[in-house]
Amino acid sequence: MTDTSLQSQIDQAVALLKQGQTIAYPTEAVFGLGCDPFDKQAVENLFHVKQRPMEKGVILVAASIEQIQDYVELSGAPWQSKVEKSWPGPVTWVLPLKQAMPDWVTGGRDTVAIRVSDHPVVQALCVAFGAPIVSTSANISSFEPARSCVEVKQSFADEVFCIDAPLGGLAQPTQIWDARTQTQLR
């Protein structure tokens, strides 16, 4: 695949995100489903496609710390150094909120799970979108996550647009850590 066709796919995905659609894209280990986290109808559609209850909340993925710094307690927090050393990279952190976020993102908690990814497609997607996006595994709940656009299409037919690019080098989905307790959740 040429860089031009990848950029074209990213541009198309961003246009769909702005229209409230669900997209699929490669992450560090599996394909993710994404949408605009602040568009309730988009998140409801993603949960419908995934056949997952909305109460669980979602992980957000961003291109930079700057994209998330207004939302979470990081600057000056006891966990700041550890979190920043792991980003950009394949570590998701559950961080306390600095300002309220919709319950459909947080699952009603006072925290949000967020990752500043170093995957080039995720980076380009979030930069072009100008904000974090939802990142949940591309699968019907309880089934194995997709590891290619072919598998995404098998699960979701034409319900989601898939950016056809390579996964990162991880064999398992990213680790999830709780910043306050410094415990690994996954």
Automatic annotation (TrEMBL):
Major localization class: cytoplasm
Subcellular location: Cytoplasm
Its EC number(s): 2.7.7.87
InterPro entries cross-referenced by the UniProt entry: DHBP_synth_RibB-like_a/b_dom, Sua5-like_dom, TC-AMP_synthase, TC-AMP_synthase_SUA5
Molecular functions (GO terms): ATP binding; double-stranded RNA binding; L-threonylcarbamoyladenylate synthase; tRNA binding
Alphabetized UniProt keyword annotations: ATP-binding, Cytoplasm, Nucleotide-binding, Nucleotidyltransferase, Transferase, tRNA processing
Gene Ontology CC annotations of this record: cytoplasm
Record carries keyword Transferase: yes
Recorded superkingdom: Bacteria
Protein name as catalogued: Threonylcarbamoyl-AMP synthase
